[in-house]
Amino acid sequence: MKRQQVPSPLSVFLILLVCDKVLDFLIQINLLLLGLSKNIDQKTFDYYRASEIKHGRVCQLAVLGYIIPEILRFPGEIAPGIKFADIPNGVAAIQSIPSLGWIQIFFLIGFVDFRLSSGKSAEPFAFGNGFISFDNEADKAKAEAQEITHGRLAMLATLELLRHDSQNFISGTSEHLITGLPFLYK
Asked: What is the Cα 74 distance to its own chain's centre?
């Protein structure tokens, strides 16, 4: 059996750094070539940036939602007669969750989105909520740039996880959802 090589943390960091710079460049070029940045005022730009950050945060949670159930499960039942351990991971879970569960999820997402989209917390980064504080503007700018970068990476990761999972769900070829993380299955 051939041993799989694992890249060093430094090489992964360098690849992600280069990918982020390339992605930033491609986004700027596409905005210019497609005319998406014409006649955009500051308010529209702030709306787009807030949407990008919101989508990035949701995708970060989605990536965690894919990985965590592979490692541990809640004890107990999600609904009467349905244990958490009986719910499959990923796309296959869509068929297993009862309709009342989907209604609860839908209203929870709507409530959270409504609460975060109104008032002061509609600011793109909303770091001034008392949980995180910064000593100076340079640290805050660095954290904002990191959040955008992590969100973009999470959006790509979510798309790949969904593509991979849907392909395996349709073909029924994989016994594990995430086959790209070999340390989970040793």
From this structure: 21
d(CA 37, CA 59): 25
Q: Write out the two tokens for 75.
A: 């004890």
Q: One digit per residue, pLDDT tens: the chain, 186 residues?
A: 455 555 566 665 566 666 667 766 666 666 666 666 677 787 877 788 888 888 898 899 999 988 888 788 888 888 888 888 888 877 778 888 888 888 998 998 888 777 766 544 445 566 555 566 777 888 888 888 888 889 988 998 898 888 877 776 666 665 555 555 555 555
- Phi, psi (5° rounding) for residue 185? -115, 20
CA 123 to chain centre: 20
Q: Indicate the helix (H) or strand (E) that contains 22.
A: helix 9-33
CA–CA separation, 28 vs 19, rounded Å? Answer: 14
* pTM of structure: 0.69
User: Contact, 152 vs 59, CB < 8 A?
Assistant: no
Architecture of 42-185 per CATH? Orthogonal Bundle (1.10)
Listed by start position, the domains of the chain span 9-39, 42-185
